[in-house]
Amino acid sequence: GAGGGRGAAWPLSLLAFAAAARALAFPRGRPGGTPRPPCQDPRLHPLLRRHVKPKKQHEIRRLGKLLQRLGQATGCDRVVDVGAGQGHLSRLLAFGLGLSVTAVEGDGRLAGTAERFDRELLRELGKMGVPGKKEGPPRRRQNPPRRPQSPLTPRGPRHVAGRLDPGAPWGEFLLPPDPPGPGPAAKNPLGGPGGSEKGERVLVTGLHACGDLSPALLRHFARSPAVAAVASVACCYMKLSTPPQPPGSPPGYPLSAWVAGLPGHELSYRAREAACHALEEYTGRLGGESGRLRAHCYRAVLETLIRAADPGKKRPGVQTVKKAHALSFPQYARLGLPRVGLDPAALPLDSEAVGAMLEQQHKVVAFFSLTLLLAPLVETLILLDRLLYLREQGFQCALVPLFDPRSSPRNLVLVAARTPLGTALSGLDEDSSEDEDSSEDEDSSEDEDAGVTEPPGEGQD
User: What is the pTM of this model?
Assistant: First the structure.
């Protein structure tokens, strides 16, 4: 309305709604400070930063520390990284932390790229003569790291091209990669049913394991005594399977008996998709009245045109158009329509109807803001379901806001083990303090307050 500008009083019902949404959601850490693009992480060895974006550097460093502590607490030095992609986490764990790592990736091309990156790193280590020696002459730093970087080990990860079969026993969990890789079919890296290779226990992790892959990791952990602990970071909630499912194909949501019996627990595709958006980044855009908000209206108008042209396209799946806010709508539409098989010349991109829709940007922003207000709540229900699934079977489990939510929206890590987690999780506070003090070039609030959320019921030992 006319009185809805900056400084206007919100209705009490809306204030109560916002307060309830925040109170019921899992804590995501305290981002603090002014949002800014992530930068190169000086705490990672230069060779481990190659080919890795700053956001991913932050994530693999923090998750690597957690897995190292889990390994110390459980006596395991073997890690299986499922959904390893190009192997960035696996390289850190193997070359940087000295762990024995098996990287499993369902896309044979990505597994091949990971092996190529490993060979590049090994060649550089060979040129240096001494593993871990810094590349090139030392650079002058006004604020050097508090501690010198640890040397790298010459032992790299083992890469396996194969997909996880959610319904198969642990010892038979690999399916052929899609698309296939250049090499022969991979053997299961964990040996026979109920055991692991060489009879050793393992840690299992998945960094942003997409859709049903994260629930599959938890199910395999629950079924296999060979898996001592699991650390799972989820993403792509909209790709989760939901009931009804074919016989023998358990859904990705819900997992727990408690949530399955909860009236109204069903989550629509739209709700699960909204839970994947970056709340902290959008809040920054709202506060600065950013021109980037225009992209939301563009997308809404484009989808309206797509559905009018082809009513069967309920979820068009238009990929992100880069710098959409800097384009006119016709320019934006000409880039987006071919991605769903439509000819831009056949649609009225400059019509009065399109202009009238574009004038409703403030309503689109308001609707999207309310949607994102609920997004953490939807994510909480999905992760609480997984937490309760593990607790129902007697496992130790916790949710940790491990990453900075400003750069890593999916920052909650689900950790579960067959033994108490206290030792591994208590060390995260020490890691956070070390991170804050290591460089004044980094925002000191990045790793602050790595709190732990437990499910309802008895606390951890």
Answer: 0.80
